[in-house]
Design goal:
By secondary structure, this protein is an alpha/beta fold. It has helices at about 5-45, 80-90, 95-100, 115-125, 135-140, 170-175, and strands spanning about 50-55, 60-65, 70-75, 100-110, 130, 145-150, 155-160. A hairpin with a 5-residue loop joins strand 6 and strand 7 (about 155-160). The longest helix has about 40 residues, at about 5-45. The radius of gyration is 21 Å and the shape is elongated.
């Protein structure tokens, strides 16, 4: 099949548009499948409570099962991720009655400890800051922020991927209210 030279440019534009559409569809499908796999993997995991996370500013480690008895939000974030920073701002403003029953462990991902220390100084959030890079890589999490909510018994009850705005935590508030 030959394309007449005067139709070649139009043909190439159509090919480019179709290719771009296919790339977008494939990317969205891949992202969605990673998020679904993350959620499924976390909901099925029964040994997350025994994962050790090193504290950022000390040599101690945190085992998640040490925090049983209250809701725990394990938040994978980074200083270079604007959605992570926005998410923290909203989390820190949860009403005090919600925050009493929730402990936030901010697990930094691929962030230098000095950057995390500066971040802590700047915002002074009441979160526990640990290094989550190894777990993030091992579990192949879909991006930052990614969060895992544990109930007081230590079971995973919800996962969140990404940050879309303040209403992101409506389901978190529902879990805390149904305590």
């Amino acid at each position: 099949m030959r394309i007449h030279p005067r139709h070649f440019n139009k043909f190439m534009i159509v090919v480019a548009v179709v290719t771009a559409i296919l790339i977008v569809i494939a990317t969205l499908s891949y992202t969605s499948s990673r998020e679904s796999a993350f959620q499924r993997q976390m909901m099925e995991a029964d040994s997350l409570g025994y994962v050790a996370f090193p504290y950022i500013e000390s040599r101690d480690t945190l085992l998640l099962n040490q925090l049983r008895g209250q809701y725990l939000l394990l938040d994978f974030w980074s200083t270079w991720s604007e959605p992570s920073i926005e998410s923290h701002k909203v989390l820190s403003k949860l009403p005090e009655e919600d925050f009493i029953s929730l402990r936030v462990v901010a697990a930094s991902v691929r962030t230098d400890s000095s950057e995390v220390a500066a971040y802590r100084q700047k915002y002074n959030y009441a979160f526990e800051f640990v290094d989550g890079t190894d777990f993030y890589r091992e579990m192949n999490l879909p991006g930052v922020p990614s969060q895992i909510l544990f109930n007081p018994g230590g079971q995973v009850v919800a996962t969140f991927v990404g940050y879309t705005g303040p209403n992101r935590y409506d389901s978190l508030k529902t879990h805390l209210a149904n305590e």
